[in-house]
Design brief:
two-stranded parallel ribbon, Nuclear Transport Factor 2, Chain: A, binds zinc ion, elongated, 94 residues, mainly beta
Length: 94
């Protein structure tokens, strides 16, 4: 699925529609020593009732995100494009 390089979108900082540059979102690495992950492995050992372990059902497709950067105030945020899709997003060049 192709997505344009620049779009007209609402900027909450400027409080109006402005031109936004579109960038790809890079996902950070998972931190195995983060508090939440340590807690999860601790619970999976068997103490503290029923917990969600490994997921048995996998979702079909992922939510594709793009980063929007306002050309006026340079503020940026993410936007989800459509729902879940199997296609990856490509940002148009040229
Ligand atoms: Zn703005």
């Amino acid at each position: 699925m192709k997505f344009p390089k620049e779009i007209n979108a609402y900027c909450p900082k400027c409080k109006k529609h402005t031109k936004h540059k579109v960038k790809a979102v890079s996902k950070g690495r998972n931190r195995s020593m983060a508090w939440g992950n340590r807690q999860h492995t601790r619970i999976l050992r068997g103490y503290g009732g029923k917990v969600a372990g490994e997921k048995t059902v996998k979702k079909q497709g992922k939510r594709q995100r793009v980063m929007l950067v306002c050309s006026v105030c340079k503020a940026s945020w993410q936007r989800v494009i459509r729902g879940r899709t199997r296609e990856k997003i490509e940002i148009k060049t040229g």
